[in-house]
């Protein structure tokens, strides 16, 4: 009997260990991961394919060091729109998608409408090229920016402990 959709999407302890290993090093071979999580390479391969098909594994990327490639300034910017009716939000979201310097954009509730994480080569590039372009987007009322002085913690690894409780 084929498991129902809910059962098919449950993660077991091997899946959770596999996801943790992939988050640490997605470049590792299935053999290497299998040794870490006590599965054969073929079992790892099947599980990875299933996790990809389920959309749990979105994609694989190389994480670059921004400073090493000349992007030494990072800013967190808070954007407030002039109005909250009409298409201002959609227009802003469409426009912001074309900014390669904007690494992340979140629509938020609170004092601002959007929070952006931005990288730039230096402060003048941030000010003259990125923030100036942001102010020209129709509907943008105000932008407040904080310049990051030091990176204390930066991680792409999602916590998985809550999954173990359900497994």
UniProtKB/TrEMBL annotation:
SMART domains: HTH_ASNC
Positions in coiled-coil regions: none
Cross-referenced Pfam families: AsnC_trans_reg, HTH_AsnC-type
Alphabetical keyword list: DNA-binding, Transcription, Transcription regulation
UniProt key word Transcription regulation: yes
Domain HTH asnC-type: from-to ranges: 11-72
Family matches, as SUPFAM superfamilies: Dimeric alpha+beta barrel (SSF54909), Winged helix' DNA-binding domain (SSF46785)
InterPro entries per UniProt: AsnC-type_HTH_dom, Dimeric_a/b-barrel, Tscrpt_reg_AsnC-like, Tscrpt_reg_AsnC/Lrp_C, WH-like_DNA-bd_sf, WH_DNA-bd_sf
Protein name: Lrp/AsnC family leucine-responsive transcriptional regulator
Species the sequence originates in: Rhodoferax saidenbachensis
Species classification: Bacteria, Pseudomonadati, Pseudomonadota, Betaproteobacteria, Burkholderiales
């Amino acid at each position: 009997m084929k498991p129902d959709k809910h059962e098919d999407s449950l993660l077991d302890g091997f899946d959770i260990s596999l996801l943790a290993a992939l988050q640490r090093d997605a470049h590792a071979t299935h053999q290497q991961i299998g040794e870490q999580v006590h599965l054969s390479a073929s079992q790892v391969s099947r599980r990875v394919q299933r996790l990809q098909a389920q959309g749990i594994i979105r994609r694989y990327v190389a994480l670059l060091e921004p400073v090493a490639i000349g992007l030494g300034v990072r800013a967190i910017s808070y954007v407030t729109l002039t109005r909250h009716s009409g298409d201002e939000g959609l227009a802003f979201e469409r426009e912001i998608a074309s900014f390669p310097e904007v690494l992340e954009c979140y629509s938020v509730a609170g004092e601002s409408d959007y929070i952006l994480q931005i990288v730039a080569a230096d402060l003048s590039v941030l000010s003259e090229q990125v923030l100036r372009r942001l102010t020209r987007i129709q509907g943008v009322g105000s932008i407040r920016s904080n310049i990051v002085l030091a990176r204390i913690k930066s991680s792409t690894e999602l916590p998985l402990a809550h999954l173990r409780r359900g497994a």
